[in-house]
Amino acid sequence: MKKIKIGMLGLGTVGSGVFKTLKKFDNVEIVKICVKNINRPRNIEGLDSSILTTDAYSIINDSDIDIFVEVIGGVNPAWEYISEAIKAGKHIVTANKELLAKKGKELFELAEKHNKVVLYEAAIAGGIPLIMPLKTIMAGNEITKIQAILNGTTNYILTKMDVDGASYEDVLKEAQELGYAETDPTGDVEGFDAAYKITTLATIAFNKRVDINKVYREGISKVRAEDMLQANELGYKIKLIANASINNAGEVDVRVHPTLVSKNSTLAHIDYVTNAVGMKGFPIGDILLSGPGAGEFPTASSVIGDILNIAAEIGTTDYPLPMMRCKHSEEANMIPISETNNKYYISITAPNNTGVIGKIGTICADKNISLSSIIQKGVSDNNTADITVITEVCKEADIQSAISELKDCKINSLIRVM
Description:
CATH superfamily of the largest domain: Dihydrodipicolinate Reductase, domain 2
Low-confidence stretches: none
Mean pLDDT: 95
Helix content: 25-40%
Number of domains: 3
Shape: elongated
CATH architecture of the largest domain: 2-Layer Sandwich
């Protein structure tokens, strides 16, 4: 049997997992790996340092290599290397969610022009099988809604805040010490990572290209321990939810933000670093896929699955894996966040004046906002009252307008309710 030769860009956590696991397969072989520093110590059994290089083009220009695997992340230099590898006749396997979200159109058009396949199962939910099922066994479904937890770091932080009653700042520090959060956690905690993932997932599910620049994004850095406590008392958990939905007019709503999730929902109980993707469609109905969303071997599992799928096609057909190719030609008509309709949790600190609750109710009524509940818990030493409001479904623009009129009040938190 002829071995399919593979070149890999990156040998970090995921790349190491790919190398260790792929050795078990006889039909594929990693022959070159591009790294930043060849002399860096690596505790990888069976790694022959002679296959390491700092020159990505030694892989790109090697005509014996059939598959180019990219696991370094980011747009640059990944885009340059991947695009050149396609032009040089190589199929692509990538785990790069940012590249897919920002350069997906150019990437897939280039791949189609050169009759090459780009697979990216690992880019959205780590080890959870998601892209292949959507494009194959679920291809006959019309997906209308996605609600997902797509970032393990933020889910870990929110779970620890909930369980321990701790502040965001304290839990973030702990997560960094344990290696669950980066030294600069911005990409995770401010929602960028989840936004990249839901952009690509929605593009596939709705068969329309979603513009990452029009995806509303809000992170978890403003979520307070007090919000966690209040949410629990009201029957909710707070999660960073990636939402995508399409209406009957074909308009698409894609966003990432903290959300109060009912304790009756399975998503409310997806804890720590676990990811989960809930989808609604016809004829399948409601499904939930859950599992490890990151890590050395879970992510490597998806990368290796893609490699083996491509390897099985090489030499057998002139047009490999047609079902896995991009077929999106239409740009999604995106609904701005101001035009969306949601329920809201609002935490307010207000002067303890007569009629303050009535004033809040009047302002909301003037903005066509109905209140589901309004709760005041005692009066502080500085003669202020802590008030919690839960609204019925209303328009985002109306809730923002109402908040702007509460000039005497401090808005501690505004969190959408699922």
